[in-house]
Fold this sequence. Notes:
Distance between the termini: 54 Å
Strand content: under 5%
Shape: globular
Amino acid sequence: MVNIPGRSKGCLTCRRRKVKCDEGKPTCQRCHKGNHDCQGYPHPLRVVFDRSCAEVPPGKEGEASSSKAAERTNESNRLAVSRSVSRSLSRTPSNEEVVDVQRELASRPFLREPGLSPLRDDIYSSFLVKNLLVHLDIGQDAILSAFEKRSPTTDDSVQALAMAFYGRLHRQDEICQQGAVWYGKALRKLSRDLTDPNHVWSTSIVLSTATLAMYEFVTSTRMTPWIQHAGGVGRLIEARGPWRHQSPEELRLFKAVRPMIAARATNHGTRCFLEELDWRTIPWNLDPSQKASHDHLTDFACALPGLLEDRKYLKIARLADFATSTSAAKLKAFKITSFAVPPSTADRERAPRTRQEYQSLVTALEGRVSESARALQDWKNTWDESSPAYSAVGLVPSQPLSYDLPIDLFGPALHFPDLQHANTYTLYNMILFHLLGISIEIRYGWLSPNAFSSTTSSTLPTAYVSPSQSADIPADLALKRRETAIEICRAVPYHLWFEKHGSAGAYLLMWPLISALQLFIPPWTETPAPEAQWIKGVLRHIAERWGLGSMFLAEEE
Length: 557
């Protein structure tokens, strides 16, 4: 209402400055853009009383048998809470005080509203939705609707993620710690659900596990916890089978978790079950037209881990050969940078042992990579014809940033019609980057068919040498791979500069950006290239500003 004293809905800072507030929650964008400390909003709580479940203060147990005494007790509780709320509203509260009061009142049984969705219960979940989930390229159709069929485990998982996300972004350790408590509750409930035959096939178990994986992505400084949860999501989906993902609800959830499963498999260099034909077709059988262009691109991402697994076997065999004529120091450095995850005993047993086995695997891998590259180009041609164009522009951020795009390294930034388009473009370049890398290694690099047990095994692997220093790699092929990494970097400003994307731009950018970083960190170069230093700066900014991906920084240290 306007022109009525005391009825303004603006934040306390805008009201004091006497300017119009955009009423953004939990803090308004006008304060953020003007570098003002947004003090939040007048206390929005409305006390709802449910006498049937009101708390009885200590020392009143003996009066509980009397209905009049119980009624007086309830009334006493109500007045106590009312006075507490009144005191908090009699002056301008700080953000921390608002959070404390909300938490205190929410903990009282007679103030809860069980009918609310877990994504609207409190400031933390609302913040999670507004700043991450609603902006993801797969959007509400894939994620938010999956929460409609809630379960106690899902509720706790969402609460853990929401509090961790809010606490990290606002640097409030207490809230992060409370999120960890909810995380523990969710894990215990999930463990029970997995042994319950009535729940083991439910979508809520998959959703809870995926939510806990996102929690680790926000909080963990090590890769292992995230890998374990993401692996759990993959095992649950695989055990359910492709036929259990055909209904609209199940298909939305399946589409939402596919990138997570593929990213985990790519990091591990382990073949992913999602590359199989049944998993690429059966979930869409009821309505094949529902498989969008981005879904087809994700098929390529799901096939990528299998190609990387075969390359891993070639590397294992080649390293054994390489060790016979290379210094221990160089070999150790190369081992560390060649595998994101150290090869297992099973990996070593699957690796080729003879020259014939090696050449056979190289030939098969080269054929699969070439076929994937042709199919990916066909997809790109179709996508270009049906999608709005992107353009190179001189984007200028609203305030100076530590990760401004260096024009001399990357050229002008890219602008896209929307975040989904930007995500599709970076995912395409990431897939092409890996395909070109494998192709270079097996055609011209140290994994070529004639390299095994050859007299050239002591030379540096040319696939890891700067394209300008390698005489073996065709210039156009090396340049094309470099261009894919550059294109990913040129998309960074669009993902991160626009507040309307929330944290989703940063979240969607992590996988492609980590891939591009590989090109600019050769194993025997002590000083990273300027491009690598810039990418690491972006990763640090994402961790500090958006609270995401600290695990990647720890891996690089």
